[in-house]
Every structure is written in structure tokens, then in C-alpha cells.
Amino acid sequence: MTESAILVTGASTGIGFATALLLAREGYIVFAGVRTENDAERLRAAHSNIRAVLVDVRRRSDVSAALTGIEQSDAPLFAVVNNAGIAVAGPLEYLPLDDFHRQFDVNVFGALAVTQAALPLLRRTRGRIIFMSSVSGQIAPPLLGPYAASKFALEAMADSMRMELAPFGIFVSVVQPGNVRTPIWEKGRREKEELAARMPAQARANYGDAIDNLVRLTEREEQTGIDPDVVARTVLTALRARRPRARYPVGDPPGWQRRMAALLPEHLRDRLITKSINRH
Fold it and tell me: Which residues are catalytic?
């Protein structure tokens, strides 16, 4: 299916950039969704097969314009890689609801809007849909409730859509990265102070130590996580598989460990997760 088109959202950095570049090198025409012209120019310069498009997945007009451009191109759309995502962190007791809405607007509603807009084109090619989930889509740690909730929702949405679209020959897969060296956590840390300013002082008093532990943990994981290219190659595997799997876990912890952790009694799982965060 080389010379077919693939839409990759959230392609400016990290997993999205690595995926767009790998697919372009493999011969696909890649429509790389970014939000700034600077990012668009950088992607266009990275490979001649990359056609950067300005799209904020929260804006229906952006999504519609992007898909119209793809439809009018000379390459049939074979797949959508829903990678655009943000990470909102904070104690749910005090988290402003606007931040929770923002988390779902990008990670869940944005992914669904892109997929809905792309499906008429994917029906023509009996194409593929990939959702970028996370280990947090299976196990929800403390203080990452908004992010984990969005990934749990994404997993459920993918399950339903996989069964709904199977009769039409359209495959739906979920990629579940573990710890990855990606800017998403650095961006989240930059927003921490702004978020803290909008929460009551009691939030810091009650959760300050736990928040500091989480920050240290994300800093460590950025240093020790797998390279985004590893995730990109998993995406390529899912796109080229004759019968793609429903889920592709990649990175640490391995998929079997995640499944085992999900089967543990809740009190034991809670204790293990909390101890892991506090240790760092």
C-alpha cells in the first residue's frame, strides 16, 4: 500500500514526528497534522513524502479542511493514526473542570472527530485506524486521573469501533506505549504551575509531596524510556499486518505485566502503584 496516504495527527514532536518520518521513508504519502506553520515547515523539510497540514483536532473546521485536502490529493487514504494528545495531571479533588474538558477534547473527542471525517475515505480503501493509547489506558495511577481516563475512554471507543467496522473490512488497532522519551510530560510539567495557581491553596497542602514525586517520576521516565522510533515501528507493523491485532503493547512494562497487574486485587495494585511513585 505504498503511495497510499496516511494521516498522522499530533506529528510535530515525539511519537507523531517519528511515525510520520518512518512512514514517509517507507514510501507512504504522509499528511502530518500540526498546529503551527513552523512545525509544518520543519516536517516538510524532513522528507519529500510529508505533506504537513495545519489542524487542531478540537476544531471541526480544521478537521474538515484537512480531510477535504486529502480527498483532493492524488493518493488514496489508507490509514489514520490518531496520535494527537496532551497530558493533564493533578488531584481530581481540586482539578478545574475546564482542564478535564480540555483533556478529553484533544485525546478523545478530537480522535473521534478525525476518525468520523476520515471514514468515508477509508471505506473506499478498506483501510486502517490506529489509536495511540498508553499503559495508563489500562492502569490508572494517582494524579494522572484526567490523562488515564481519556486513555481508558479511547480504548473503549476503539473496541466498539473495531466490531462496528469489521463487516466493512476496516481494521481498528490500539498501540499502547509504556515509558517513552516524549515531550508530552515536559509540556505537562510546564503547565503545572499554571494549574496550581488555579487550584486552592489546600490542594498544595494536601497533595504537594505526591505531586513532587510524580514530577520526579516523569523526569526519570523521560531519561529511561524507549525511543519514539520504537513506537513508530510498531505502528508500521500494525499498518502492514494482514490481520492487525486489536492491541500492540510496546515498551516497559511489557504487555503481559500490564495484563497481570490489571488482574491483581485492587488493594494490592493500589499499593504497588503508590509505592512505585513514592520510590522516585
Answer: 147
